[in-house]
Design brief:
It is built from twelve helices and 21 strands. By secondary structure, it is of the alpha/beta class. Bound molecules: P-hydroxybenzoic acid. The site of P-hydroxybenzoic acid (PHB) has 11 residues, from strand 16.
């Protein structure tokens, strides 16, 4: 088996792994990123496109914000829609002038990949991490298998940024690991359409048939979602049925129809919440989806992942440059407090906007919550602050 040596092996080239690699690189810490999938695959993986105020700053501070600042759309509000009427939540007014950046996750990934390859740092695509070993010794290593055959990469630390089903969280013994999980009785059917968005701001909509979300990617590309039952499949949703249902749920008196266009991408995503504790097992540190999943209502997934990386980067620098272990020791607890706050917010948004197909008492409570958020400045302020900058609060 071939051998390599680095300071930090980063498993997974999603936004978390790539940003960590970029930050460590800029401080002269040697690292290798290994990714099971191809470059093409990770650059096309469509996810939520809302970046919090402080996380957009983090991306820019890491030197990866140039195109985002040029092409991203700065938004100062969102709409909540129910009973076919719209209510604007003025995010920036309520959240101290802060705003959100609408910029696709895969665009962030593309920018980070380009930066990394531009400086010639190691990023191994189509390379699977098959085992993480020696984590409780001072000589951990990761075995990988890819285009160059099997390689053993020795290191000081391993960052597990490889998602819920990756090897990293499986490496933590079950006697140590605790997993909290919740599933929801809906999925999201998402489409990307070549249609000019008929809205300037994101619209989160509750309709008795289910949730709908009107989002966008650019002046010519709309991103739309329908809440559907968890057992529904794409085959059941023709283009006509998708557009009819979007029009029905999102209609208002002023704007009865949304702009339609060719659907260029579609998928159904199950909704769940997962938290894994602890996020550190000796020399293995989890970040992003490897440690937690949030339902997409609120768009917290990538923001939460990148906020983990901000903490992890500081902790690794303190350890590797100054032999100071304090930040690594508190890494898990520091992150988990914020992770649970994001879980709370994502659950709150999910439960407020997805009508129950069974429980009309629940539906009455949901409507009361929505009216309270719209009518009470205190309630909308909480929503706005969490939406715009939860991960920096
Ligand atoms: C998206 O644009 O894909 C998006 C926006 C907001 C969400 C989820 C997804 O809450």
């Amino acid at each position: 088996m071939k051998e390599l040596r680095t300071q930090v092996v980063i498993v997974g080239a999603g936004p978390a792994g790539l940003l960590l690699g970029q930050l460590l690189q800029s401080e002269g810490i040697d690292n290798v990123v290994v990714e099971q999938r191809s470059r093409e695959y990770i650059e096309k993986r469509v996810r939520a496109g809302v970046i919090e105020h402080g996380i957009a700053e983090l991306i820019s501070d890491a030197g990866a914000g140039e195109r985002m600042k040029r092409e991203g759309l700065v938004h100062h509000g969102i709409e909540l829609r129910y009973d076919n009427a719209s209510h604007r939540i003025p995010l920036s007014d309520l959240a101290g002038g802060k705003s959100i950046m609408v910029y696709g996750q895969q665009e962030v990934v593309k920018d980070l990949v380009a930066l990394r390859l531009g400086v010639g740092a190691l990023l191994l695509f189509e390379t699977e991490a098959t085992a993480i070993e020696g984590i409780t010794t001072d000589a951990p290593y990761v075995e990988v298998d890819g285009v160059d055959g099997k390689v053993r990469i020795s290191c000081d630390y391993v960052a597990g940024c490889d998602g819920t089903f990756g090897v990293a969280n499986r490496t933590i013994p079950t006697s140590v690991l605790r997993r909290y999980e919740r599933t929801y009785p809906f999925s999201w059917l998402g489409i990307l359409a070549e249609a000019a968005p008929a809205t300037e701001e994101l619209i989160y909509c509750r309709h008795e048939n289910g949730f709908a979300l009107y989002s966008l990617r650019s002046p010519t590309v709309s991103r739309l979602y329908l809440g559907v039952r968890p057992d529904e499949t794409l085959e059941q949703w023709s283009d006509d049925r998708i557009w009819d249902e979007l029009n029905l749920r999102l209609a208002t008196e002023e704007v009865p129809e949304i702009n339609q266009g060719p659907i260029i991408e579609r998928g159904i995503t199950a909704m769940r919440s997962i938290v894994v504790e602890p996020m550190r097992y000796d020399r293995l540190l989890l970040a992003g989806d490897a440690a937690h999943i949030v339902p997409p209502t609120g768009a917290k997934g990538m923001n939460l992942a990148l906020a983990d990386v901000r903490v992890l980067f500081q902790a690794l620098i303190a350890q590797l440059k100054s032999n100071d272990a304090r930040l690594l020791d508190s890494y898990s607890a520091t992150c988990l407090e914020r992770v649970w706050r994001a879980e709370e917010f994502s659950t709150y948004m999910t439960q407020m906007l997805h009508p129950s197909y069974e429980d009309d008492f629940e539906n009455g409570v949901q409507m009361a919550r929505l009216r309270q958020v719209v009518d009470s400045r205190e309630a909308s302020t909480v929503l706005a602050r969490n939406y715009v900058d939860l991960n920096s609060l």
